[in-house]
Design a protein that fits this description.
Radius of gyration: 17 Å
Strand order of the largest sheet: 4-5-6-7-9-8
Distance between the termini: 36 Å
Number of helices: 7
Helix content: 25-40%
Structural class: alpha/beta
């Protein structure tokens, strides 16, 4: 039996910036963030995708920054041009960093309610042509609190449905190089990683797609493929010299 062929547009880490308040101005290329996002949207429209998924970090200014409103307005104008239905996975610039993680920023904020009002659920599941799509809140998975426990309960409910074929989308990669690598800012902690990997097996996941590090990574484990997407906006300096 042939597998269903769907065209899914994936993009991430657009980091829209304010044009009037250049709070992201470390490199000359930073001025091109917005243009590159508009070009990515134009490319997605030409592909005639069945739907799109944005994997997080819509704006560069955080929701508690003065320049956030203008950056968000630019992002909304860009996304309004998307022809296909678009789903959004929350990133750390959208709702706040995962807590209790090595090298995490000292300042924490939470904008979960604001994200839900504007972009939809923080985590969700939908089916199309017999394929299950699971979108997760990675900042919640990487933390340990009542919010994360509610998410795990929701995931346990999905696990009990005996899904036949699924794809999972999350902002934070569970790991970059190897499954037992040390915990750091760009992966999930050991407990969260182990629990997520168990979930992937239970829902018959074929591939997990993540973002956050602004660089392409590929890995596989137990028949599951792991793709980490590059950013539309910029290569993070700490990964600039990485040669895979």
């Amino acid at each position: 039996m042939s597998k269903t062929l769907l065209h899914i547009g994936l993009f991430s880490d657009t980091h829209f910036r304010s044009e009037s308040n250049t709070d992201q101005n470390a490199f000359p290329s930073d001025a091109g963030h917005n243009q590159m996002a508009f070009e990515a949207v134009d490319a997605l429209n030409k592909l005639s995708c069945d739907f799109n998924i944005h994997l997080g970090d819509i704006t560069h200014p955080l929701p508690n920054a003065a320049s956030y409103t203008e950056a968000l307005h630019i992002a909304n104008n860009c996304f309004d041009q998307l022809k296909a239905k678009t789903y959004f996975v929350p990133g750390n610039h959208d709702i706040g960093d995962k807590k209790g993680t090595a090298n995490a920023p000292e300042e924490f904020f939470s904008a979960r309610e604001e994200f839900e009002q504007l972009r939809g659920p923080l985590y969700q599941h939908f089916s199309l042509d017999g394929i299950e799509f699971v979108l997760l809140d990675g900042t919640c998975i990487g933390s340990s609190n009542a919010l994360s426990e509610r998410l795990w309960e929701w995931m346990d409910g999905l696990s009990s449905l005996n899904l036949k074929r699924s794809f999972v989308f999350i902002h934070y990669p569970p790991f970059l190089f190897k499954i037992d690598e040390d915990e750091h800012y760009d992966n999930l902690n050991y407990h969260s990683r182990e629990r997520l990997l168990s979930f992937l097996k239970q829902v018959n996941c074929e591939a997990l797609f993540s973002a956050h590090v602004h660089r392409f990574f590929y890995n596989h484990w137990e028949g599951i493929e792991f793709y980490t997407l590059p950013s539309t906006s910029f290569l993070r300096p700490e990964y600039a010299g990485l040669n895979l």
